[in-house]
Each structure stands twice: as structure tokens, then as C-alpha cells.
Amino acid sequence: MAKMIYIVDDSKTMLMSVRSTLEMAGYRVETSDNPLNAVQHLNANKVDLIITDVNMPGMNGLELIAKVRSSSANRF
Q1: With contact defined as beta carbons under 8 Å apart, do 15 and 31 qualify?
Q2: How many CB atoms neighbour CB 27 within 10 A?
Q3: Half-sphere exposure of 24 (CA within 13 A, CB side)
Q4: Is residue 7 predicted with pLDDT exceeding 60?
Q5: Which of 13, 19, 24, 27 is deepest in the core (most CB within 10 A)?
């Protein structure tokens, strides 16, 4: 089974580009352009890798990773 990668970036162009590249390499990929929505999704779903932009409105990428790491649903 292919690994699940979750990408969070406020640039839809960047999301599409990275998603396409990773899917061509055989990975399963989900994306979000909103870090607040991403936290909810990541707390409810297991992923193998998170790729995130650092500078985003509402929450930066480091805050996003900290919130997800502190949840019981994901263990990185």
C-alpha cells in the first residue's frame, strides 16, 4: 500500500504541483489550503508524512505540526 502524504499550503498552485509530482511517484496524496481545516483532518486521519508551508494566514506551519503532534490520533 502506498504511503499517505498530506500537504498544507495556502498556494493552490503549489498544492497542485507537489501533489502531481508525488502521485506520479506512487504516493497517495491529500491536500489543504487552510491550516485550521488541516488540523481537524489530521486529528481524525492517520498520515505517513506532512509537508507544510511555514508562512500561512491563520496558523504557521510550525504551529500546525505542534498541534497535530500533541493529538492522540497521530504519533510522529
Answers
A1: yes
A2: 15
A3: 6
A4: yes
A5: 19
The neighbour count for residue 36, using CB atoms within 10 Å, is: 13
SS3 59: coil
**Residue pair 61/34 in contact by the 8 Å Cβ criterion:** no
Q: How many residues does the chain have?
A: 76
Q: Which of 38, 33, 36, 39 is nearest to 70 (CA)?
A: 39
DSSP H helical segments within 28-75, as ranges?
35-44, 61-70
Determine if the pTM surpasses 0.70: yes
| 3 state DSSP class of 21 | helix
